[in-house]
Amino acid sequence: VPTTIPALGYALLGLLQQKPSSGYELRKMFSSTSLRTYSDSPGAIYPALQRLEKQGLIRGTIEDSSGLRRKQIFHVTSKGLTELKQWITRPVTREDLIWGESEVLLRFAFSESVAGRSGAIELLRSLEIALNNHVPELHSELNQIRSIKGPTSGRLAFECGVEGYEHLLHWTQRALASYEKERKGASS
Amino acid sequence: VPTTIPALGYALLGLLQQKPSSGYELRKMFSSTSLRTYSDSPGAIYPALQRLEKQGLIRGTIEDSSGLRRKQIFHVTSKGLTELKQWITRPVTREDLIWGESEVLLRFAFSESVAGRSGAIELLRSLEIALNNHVPELHSELNQIRSIKGPTSGRLAFECGVEGYEHLLHWTQRALASYEKERKGASS
DNA sequence: TATGACATGTAATCTGTTACATGATTAG
DNA sequence: CTAATCATGTAACAGATTACATGTCATA
Predict the structure, then answer these.
(1) Whole-number Å distance between alpha carbons of A144 and B147
(2) What's the Cα-to-Cα distance from B37 to each of A99, B29, B59, B81, B164, rounded to whole Å?
(3) Rounded to whole angstroms, what are the CA distances from A23 to A12, A65, B68, B182?
(4) Phi and psi, residue B65, nearest 5°
(5) Is the distance from CB of A33 to CB of A47 less than 8 angstroms?
(6) To the nearest 10°, the Cα dihedral for B4, B8, B9, B15?
(7) By the CB < 8 Å criterion, does A154 face chain B?
């Protein structure tokens, strides 16, 4: 029994938490939206669903009420919901930033429906802290690159990466601000 | 003989093209820089080097001149250089953007030393075109998301992604401008 | 009745991760 | 001498890609 779940598994859990669906519907959602980063091939999605079911995180029920198709609708179990919530609310680490901002964003995308507004805000705060630690690190690495002679394109590419993290930080702060502003209006 | 080379392989080729190195040195470069996104574990790097050598893209020579260590120094063959140049100068596609800007950036980082200033500029132009096609697509997807009710966090996360591509486009244009400016000064 | 979309899978292959194993060299 | 670092690997396993296989349903 493997203990870690790959990003694709969490993406499936997140979608199923929002609305129980069949494997085919999930596949369509992946291929038609920008979630296609996490693979849209049947050879990835169906085995992933089988794994999640084997782990007790989702359960599939056969729909034969209206049509006769042996279509299976999967829904998240309470165990799955717990796992999903843990994945989302876990503090953002340096490693999370290094090996892909996209997974953090995926966690945030699902945060509100899984962990509520407060969970979303908490995640943003954690992300802000991690970025505030990471960005200066990148700047010092950049200075090192600038000091040694090397191809211009290498330096430019690195600068692009650094700016990407800076942009993420600004976005985080804007997102936090928008949540704060919303709070003033309605209570929830 | 597999026809496609994973990103790690190209990263290795690119580094070796800049300077012949041993597996250990390469590993250190990966783990100490932001290249660590492409794995820094020996279980990935050494097999990757073996594959590249089997494909005739690199060749290793045993250094026993000074120290007695059976350290192997790898260098890129002419076939490897051709392969690397093709990877870098191939036009940027929509798919390239979707499944990871980082690989495009890696291509650009090596472009100047492999394909010269003109190759770097060509790559940037191609990237600009691809982004100019892709960003409007994302905006229409964003409008669709905005129209249907859904969790705020989902929309915010998507907006972050779109802005990321917009940032990349701005960076591309700035990089191009910096190359243009440089041209005015010195000829090369 | 034949075509295409719906719907679900499997098999072969490749790559990466983790964890372990090995031996050489240098510093204390 | 022994501990740490240099340097190179292997083995077991998990997961993704590609391509293929299968069967259902609606429609022309």
Answers:
(1) 46
(2) 5, 12, 25, 23, 18
(3) 9, 18, 58, 54
(4) -70, -60
(5) no
(6) 150
(7) yes
**Edge-to-edge strand order for the sheet containing A21-22?**
A21-22, A71-76, A58-63
φ/ψ of A40, rounded to 5, equals -125, 15
Which residues in chain B have their CB less than 8 angstroms from residue A92's CB? none
Within residues 33-72 of protein chain B, the ones with CB less than 7 A from nucleic strand C are 38-39, 41-44, 47-48, 51, 67-69
Number of continuous H segments (helices) and E segments (strands) in chain B: 7, 3
Q: Rounded to whole angstroms, what are the CA distances from B124 to A153, B12, B40, B94, B177?
A: 10, 22, 28, 14, 10
Q: Which amino acid is at A125?
A: R
Give the closest residue to B97 by CA, choosing from B73, B129, B68, B67. B129
Q: Measured between alpha carbons, how far is B123 from B118 in angstroms, rounded to an integer?
A: 9
Q: Which of A138, A164, A179 sits opposite B167 (nearest CB)?
A: A164
pLDDT digits (tens, 9 = 90+) for B115-167: 999 999 999 999 999 999 999 999 999 999 999 888 999 999 999 999 999 99
Is the pLDDT at A4 greater than 60, yes or no? yes
Q: A108, B167: Cβ pair inside 8 Å? A: no
pTM score, whole prediction = 0.93
The string of pLDDT tens digits covering residues B27-48 is: 999 998 889 999 889 999 999 9
B84, B74 contact by CB (below 8 A): no
Distance of CA A69 to the CA centre of its chain: 32
